[in-house]
Each structure stands twice: as C-alpha cells, then as structure tokens.
User: Fold this.
Amino acid sequence: MKMKKDRDSNKKGTFSYIMGSVGRYIKSNYSVLIMIFVTFVVCSGLSFVKIATTSTISSYNLEDYEIGQISDITIKATKSLAPDAYNPVSVEKDEKVIRKGFPITEEGYAKLKKMAEAPAYIDYRAFANSVIFHLLNCILFFFFRSRLYFKRKIEFKEIVTECLFYLVIYAMAIFASKTVLFSSAFAMPVIIPSTLCVVLVAILFGQLNAVFFSIVVSLGVLNAASYQLVPFLFTLTISLATSRIVNKIERRIDMIFASLLQALLNVVFLLVFKVIFNDSMNEAVLSLTGVAFNGFISGILCLGLLTPLEMILNTASPFRLMELSDLNNPVMKKMLVTCSGTYNHSMMVASLAEAACREIGANSLLARVGAYYHDIGKMDNPEYFVENQNGGENIHKAINPSLSVSIIRSHVKRGMEKAHAMRLPQQIVDIIGEHHGNQVIAYFYNEAKQSDPNASSDDYAYTGNPPSTKESAVVMLADTVEAACRTLEKPSVPRLDKFISALINGKIELHQLDNCDLTFNDLTKIHDSFVQILAGYYHSRIEYPDQKDPDSGSVSAEKDRTLDKSAEKTSVQESKTREKTASKSDEPKKTRGKNNAK
Assistant:
C-alpha cells in the first residue's frame, strides 16, 4: 500500500510539474502562440473559400467527367435538390446519379453539374485535410522559432512580419489557382511573390530566418496549388537561393545586381523543372519571361519597401547599420568634442571587434557599429573616465569608492537610455548593456576593502548581463583588451600575446562568456586577430640620428639651439676681428702723433 501511494504521489508530482512547465511556457510565449493561431485561422478560411468555389462532386472534380464516359464510380446524391432556372433538373436523395461501369448520359451529367454547383456539395473532406495540413505547418513554423536554432529570443515583430508575408503568398497562390492564365503548374510561380518576401526576411532578420521561412512558405504553396509538385519545388529552391544571394549585401546598389542574378536563376530553375517533368515548350516563353520579371522586380520593390520597414520594425539590417556607421552623425560628433578619449577608444574597439568577427564568421558590421556606440553613456560625465583626463589628476582620488562605482557603472544604463531614445536596433542596445557583463569593478572594490573589509562585491559590480551573442562578446573582449593594452610598457608581440591571453582567460574564469556560444577555436582566432592589429598599432619605428628624447625637447628645438650657439660663436669671432683691426689702425696714428711732437 505504501509503495502504491508513493507511485501515485510521484505520478501526481510529475503531472503537476509538466503542467506547470507548460503553463510557464505558454505565459512567456502567449503573444507568439496567438499570432500563429490567427495565421492558422486565416489560412483555414482561405482554404475554405478555395474549396467552396471549386466545382466538386463529393471528392471529385466535375472536369473529370464528360458525356459518354464510362464511369469508374457510383455517385449517390446525399440531399434532394429542386430544379431552378439555371439547372432545371431535379435530384432526389440517395439517387444513383451515375453508375460504375455505365456510360454517363446527358441527364446524368446535368445532375452532376447541379450537384457540383450546389453549396451543399462543398468537399468538407478536402477542407478537413487542408486544416490538418495548416495545423502541422504552423507547428513546424513554431518549432523553427525555438531556442534549438536561435540562441536569442525571437522578437514578436519578426513573427508578425513573417506571418503576414506567409498569408500574402498563400493568398496569391490561391488566386493564381483560380485564374485561367496562372492556374497551370508552370505559370503559377509567375505571380507568387515568394522571392520578394524572402529577400525582405533575409535582410531584416537574417539568413537563418529566411531559410526556415522558405521551407514553411513552400509548404503553403504546395497546399494552395492542390499538392502539385512544380510550384512547391520552384518556390523552395528559388527561396533558398534568394536567402543565400542577399546574405552578403551591404549596399543598396548591390540589390540591382542581386535582382539580375535572381531573374537569371528563376529562368534556369523553371527550365530545369520543365525538362524534368517533360512539359511542353510551346508556352515556355511566356512563363520564362514572367518568372524573370518576377525575380527582377522583387529586388526593385525590396529597395522601396526596405526603408519604411526598417523604420517601423527598427531592425539591424545591413543598410541600416551602414547608415549608423556614418561618423558624421550628431552623436559621434558630440562624443568627439566632449570626450575625445572615449571617441578614440571606441574607434579602436570597433577595428578590433570588426576584424575578430570577420575571422569567426560573425556579423562584423553589427560588431563595428555596436562598438561605436557602446560607450555613449560616458558623454554625460566624461571627466570621470581615465581616457578623458588627459594626464591630469584622477578625480576619483577625492571621492568615496562607492560613489565612484555608481558613476562608472551608470554609463551602461545611460548608454542604453540614449540608444532607446535614438531608436537604435535592439541588437546594438544589447551590446551596450552587455559590454561589461556583471563583473566586479576590481579597482574600486579593492580600495573599498581597505577601508571596509566587509564590503560586498555585489555593490561594486556592473548590473548588466553577460554577453548573449558572439558580436556582444567580441565587443566586450575588444573593449577590455584595448583599454588594458594602453597600460602595457614596451608592447612587443610576445608581451601582447601573453597579456591578451591572460585577459581572455580572465573573462572565461569570471563566467562572462558562458551565454554567447563562442568556442575555444573562436577564442583562438579572436586572440590572434587582436594581437595582429595591436602589434601593428604599437609598432616600433627606426630612431633617426637627429632624433632626441621628447623630454629633452623636440628635434627642431635642438636645431635652433645649435644655430644659436654657432651664431654666438660667429659674433664673438667677428667682434675680436674688429678689435684687432681697430688696434692696428690706431698704431699709425700714435706714431704720427709722436713724430709731430718731436
């Protein structure tokens, strides 16, 4: 009995734990679940419209039958239908309209037509199949947005945008299937805007998002096209190719070349599918021209839609990052004037972070822009940061360590506030908030320990979170390395190598790199990149013969002193010469005077 009670209690405990986990998950992702559910409902409604407007008899199309054809099935009427002006024939319930093995008569075909056009003969089985298909596709879409693939939290605006794009593509595919011009399998891709939507998703949200979106939207086209393979395969292949083409685009002019390449690929893929499925080439010119125009116009429309979408969604697209990297903007100009030391520090951190991210395959443009803005919170109190003190007296020596810490770590919060006010993308805001993590400010903590041994390290630590992305982690390492290497005496390559290794190992020991997916191979590449750049920055120069120590004055001053000494010697010699000349000229006068006296 006791064992049975234990098993029952364990079952109850397991059930309550599972239900609690599900409840917490739903609570934290309810907005995403609601959006996906709304998409599912709309897609089901569009499917119902498609099926309700299709001439079907039970689960068969009216086009499958003709007068005189030997029927391969017996069809019975499920309801009685009275004659009307359009269809004057009547149909009785349970009447066998056509019989298997017998030819279809004119009267039988008329009754089939009446059944097909009657609202009572909507193919609910096909509708149920479509609903199940959309349900599975929505589950797949939700699965693709899990933390298994994305180590960051997917923002709600991404889900909304992709769901809207999915509905647009699905609705256009249904519209194409209802028109005579685009209803064929090889003409349907002409009107489906999958290329445009995938380009926008790839630029706004990244390549991985675009790949998953391509798979889901291709399955939607498969359903809209009544499960024909050609529209599905064309949409899938061209969408995946599109997500790869736009991955390296950084300038708007690159979209023109991408559009031309996209048009060429559309033609090539459609030709390949025509050959594989042995389709006639009689109408190939129209369909090939259509898909080429679709691919080219998608890139042009993307240029027009990107700017408003970037402003509405506030995403870190390559074009937006290029605009933010312009150092002539008011914020960077103000930083240069008010805290030039921080400005120069940020420029160096940006160079280090960009090079390191390029080595490990991360977003180098995002890292560079994030490094530009990571210390904008220092502009409010620039004199409290050592790089802006210009060798003067350290202001922190006159104030309490706890006050110093509150001022120092406040630059992170102020920087995030400024970033939100400037409407910087969330990825840059995260870099600003994470570039110091939650580590202790050791200098002031040690000073506080001298006066108060019970001082808590939490009171002297940054309040941010450790880096959550590779770009954020690289900016943290670049910030630490650049600041620390300024204090290194005689920074030779071996000394830089050891010093940077110690700094990176220190971040690992402090658990500042636990959440950013950096591997040891990545850290090695980052280390080597830092050493290479800083070795070039701190390179030694040849000492020229006339080069003097700066403490003893400049080279020009030495030359001036040399010239002064030579001029002084020359003037002394000239004065001595004049004296000798004067004395010689006086001797005859004296002689003549003596003679006259005599």
